[in-house]
Amino acid sequence: MDKHSDQKRAVQYLYPPTDPYDQRMLDVGQGHRVYMEQCGNPSGIPVVVLHGGPGGGCSPAMRRYFDPERYRIILFDQRGCGRSRPHASVTHNTTWHLVDDIELIRRTLEIDAWIVFGGSWGATLALIYAQAHPARVRNIVLRGVFLMTQRELDWFYGGGAGRFWPEVWGRFESLIPEDERGDLISAYHRRLFSGDMAMETRFARAWSSWENALASIHSTGSGGEAPGDYARAFARLENHYFTNAGFLEFDGQILAHAGRIKHIPGTIVQGRYDMICPPESAYALSKAWPNADLKLIRNAGHALSEPGISAELVRTMDRIAGK
């Protein structure tokens, strides 16, 4: 839910709003149709933007990190969220389906190779896609690195982050009976997929609020209340992916396969005080991928819209375009 936090504070660093010149629904198979759009210069440097979550969807603000005169900006809503259909569906919805969807978009748009730009879960997906199709990636730009490991899930859903935000954590776990609190991902899974729409929406809002409350360094601990449809898609998809360990072959796969992208230049922009995805993952990735430049942003948390993170991402994309 990081796309909503602190937008007004970061807006000074972004390019002016821009409208798509191309919007379409792409049939990706297995009953899924994915929303896709293009903005900027049709002859510019192609960049595909991978949103977070899973289940977060893309937003108009995500177009604004790129000079519209120099970039061909491609955004899409991953399966089951945003404007993609069917909404909140986890059927035929795995990491590898998403990797195939990205490739289908690339081929449909007749792009030989592109820059991959992603944050949080979008960073996870960017790395997995690049490792699967390294010849199709010319540069990787990441924010708020998440490596889809059990250690990271234990931090955020096992009480690690809760030690810094005990009152917010208390709200999150209080909805679950004490005898189920040893595995909150599973406990929430049972309720998010109960078949009772009211129950699913209630627990989806609680799941989403826990994450949103910790996204910004300026947070007061209030995660707000997301619209029911949005929260349900976000929580169900995120929980589905985490329940299945991101559909990876083994824990630690992304770091183990870092050699597959060693030739690809990259930039990692990481908030020093990221409570959702602590900096140790970004640091470990930078050690395994020497061709990547790690930028640790002081006084910044997790959100894409943190001012320091926004400023560094825009600088990075301007630098790449300048080359």
What's a concise summary of this model?
The chain is of the alpha/beta class.
Supply database-style keywords.
323 residues, alpha/beta, eight-stranded mixed sheet, 11 helices, 37% helix, 17% strand, globular, disordered N terminus
Strand order of the largest sheet: 1-2-4-3-5-6-7-8
Alpha carbon gyration radius: 18 Å
The level of helicity is 25-40%
Order of helices and strands: HEEEEHEHEHHHHHHEHEH
Task: Give the termini separation.
Answer: 33 Å
Number of E-type strands: 8
Report the structural category. Answer: alpha/beta
Write down the overall geometry.
globular
Specify the biggest β-sheet. 8 strands, mixed
Residue share in β-strands: 15-25%
Q: Stretches where pLDDT falls below 50 for ≥5 residues?
A: 1-6
Mean pLDDT: 96
Number of helices: 11
What is the topological layout?
Blueprint: H1 7-10, E1 22-29, E2 32-40, E3 45-50, E4 71-76, H2 95-108, E5 114-119, H3 121-132, E6 137-143, H4 150-157, H5 166-174, H6 184-192, H7 197-213, H8 228-243, H9 253-256, E7 266-271, H10 279-288, E8 292-297, H11 307-322
Explain the overall architecture:
With 323 residues, the protein is α/β, with parallel strands linked by helices. Helix content is 37%, strand content 17%. It is built from 11 helices and 8 strands. The chain has helices at residues 7-10, 95-108, 121-132, 150-157, 166-174, 184-192, 197-213, 228-243, 253-256, 279-288, 307-322; strands spanning 22-29, 32-40, 45-50, 71-76, 114-119, 137-143, 266-271, 292-297. An 8-stranded mixed sheet has the order 1-2-4-3-5-6-7-8, with helices on both faces. Strand 1 (22-29) and strand 2 (32-40) form a beta hairpin. Helix 2 packs across helix 3, helix 5 (166-174) runs antiparallel to helix 7 and helix 6 crosses helix 8. The longest helix is centred in the middle third of the chain and has 17 residues, at 197-213. The chain is globular. Residues 1-6 have low confidence and may be disordered.
